[in-house]
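User: My collaborator and I are trying to settle a disagreement about how two of our proteins should look. Neither of us wants to argue from intuition anymore, so we agreed to look at predicted structures for both before our next call. Could you fold the first one, then the second, and keep them clearly separated?

Assistant: That sounds like a sensible way to settle it. I'll keep them separate. The first protein:
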Amino acid sequence: MRPMDLAGLDAGAILEACGASEGKQSAARRLAELGIPTKKSEEYRYFDPRSLMEKRWERVVNTQGEPDVGDALVICDGVVIQIPDDDAVGVEIHGGGAVDAGHYDPLYYLGHLLSLRTVSVRFKSDAKVLIVHRFNEPEKLLGYRLEIRLDPHANVQVEERFEGAAPGAFVLQGWDLSVGDYAALKWIQQQTLLAGGHTPVFSHSVTVGRGGYLGMHTFDYGSGEGLQPMKVALEQDAEVKAFHLLYAEGEARRGIVSKIIHEGPHALSTQRAKSILDDRARGIFDALIKVEHGGKYAKAHQNSRAILLNDGATMDSKPQLEIYIDDLEASHGSTTGQLDPEQLFYLRARGIGETEARKMLILAFANEMIDLIEDENLRNRLYGEFEKVYYGESHVTCLETCHGCQENMLKEESHG
């Protein structure tokens, strides 16, 4: 199938062209309203989707068997091959699933229409789960969805990893996530994409219930292309903290397009992005925080910082606030620049070569985001993954030395 062929069709014709069931009628209607995205679409202005939309794709078609039971939820080319051995976690596999009728992203709806299946995960109580996605089908279009639900008061940590190489593939995936009242979710996602590999567009819809909490940490590395559009809705007293670290090199195009919407009063949102861009890489942070009329007494803060390592790199940073009330606290900002010459001079004055000094400053910049992870084992793994991409190998002792340098610098500065 060729996604661009769906342009201009009505909902019935879209359903038929996608081979989707009547139960996905609402997704087809919304896709007909929004249209197939082009370079001129607002949400895709920095991530031209034409090569994905105009290609005629062979879709991945496979059969779901009985999954094994193990330490993690493992999904291989949309097939669940392992479910976690944890009574607090319920997993179901079906062909339907809830659809957010107010999402802004047309590929969110296309993803639903082309999904092989939906993997529903319900957290009934506190749990810690690893979700592994594997991609092995080159040059094909793969679609599947995850439906995640936290029962009220559940406290959950999800680590999401991506494995495998599917050169030239297009992966349409994403979460429909519901954080129940007074529940808490820490969602830590790490993804390294290589040039010529698969291109993921992970489109998410998130609702955080009354008094609920979502801590989102995304770590995107490498020279490949990919985008994560997401919509997050906050009810009364809900809170989201979203932290994004991007290291892109080569000809990469990577980033986040997000809309965080304060629907209920007293909700809090904090969004911070750090991007390190090398070669001719392009980073994207196109983020909106919207405070609706019902979002009184909101606190909303947004910030993006980017370092360009050479003249060929580009950062498209667009933090935005859209506010319809007076009673709130809000801020946003964005900076893009080079490495701080004063810090570079400081290190070089102590006998450190320029190349090593630059690496130390980059690691210190990145580690500020990795240090936010409380789980020590996971934090060390993320240090290692960043090192492997940045250095080509991992040696945590260097990072420890780097931390030491930072501390020494701060001590010396505090003593004048």
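The second protein, kept apart from the first:
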Amino acid sequence: MTRRDLLRSGAAVATATLAPGVTLMAFGGSSAEAAGADAGKRWGLLIDVSKCKDDCSACVSACSEENGWGGGDSPETDAQWIRKLTLTSKATGHQANMPMMCQHCEEPPCVDVCPTGASMKRADGIVLVDKHTCIGCRYCMMACPFKARSFVHEPVINQKSHAPRGQGTVESCTLCVHRVDKGGTPACVEACAAAGHEAIIFGDLKDPTSEIAKRLAAFPSSALRPDLDLNPGVRYTQLGQG
């Protein structure tokens, strides 16, 4: 038995109930649910940076509300599953805004370095953290080139039953897997559309008839840090404009 197996087996008998209806296993990252993911799909996002407004943070607010994070008073350490960034071209000074979240890489370095297997990629491409087997070592945070993961420093309250959290564990964007598994779309996508921007498209990258696949085929897009060859599931358009 490897150290990873030992840690997993120990965690398996210690499933904790955090609050009525909330356990660390109750989300799409459990072994059974992950095994049920459709390998014929690869879920992803396409973000049109030209439509992302600098005075809008609807995607961030929607993610926070949907998944029960945020509201802390320590900006340097508070969890942040999605954040807005402003990029400035060194050549022209042109500025562009964009949301940054887990990029759901095809070759996720966070999975490679995890000693317990808590960081995992489902067959449909969604990268998750199994809070039950996460030991809070934060190797995944150091490995992520996008700084997309957060460590939960403080006790958590008012958790959502579909997005359990735990002090001392690492977390990040789940692509709203609880919605996706029911045929829905991530909260950030809905919020962006409701705000009238429609800068974020969600869909199956493997389905050539999906809107996201059609747009990727028709227009140039960019992956962040292409030099790392991680093939992220999140793509951006108009990123280099200006």
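Some points you might bring to the call about the second protein. The two ends are 54 Å apart (CA to CA). Residues 9-22 have pLDDT under 50 and may be disordered.
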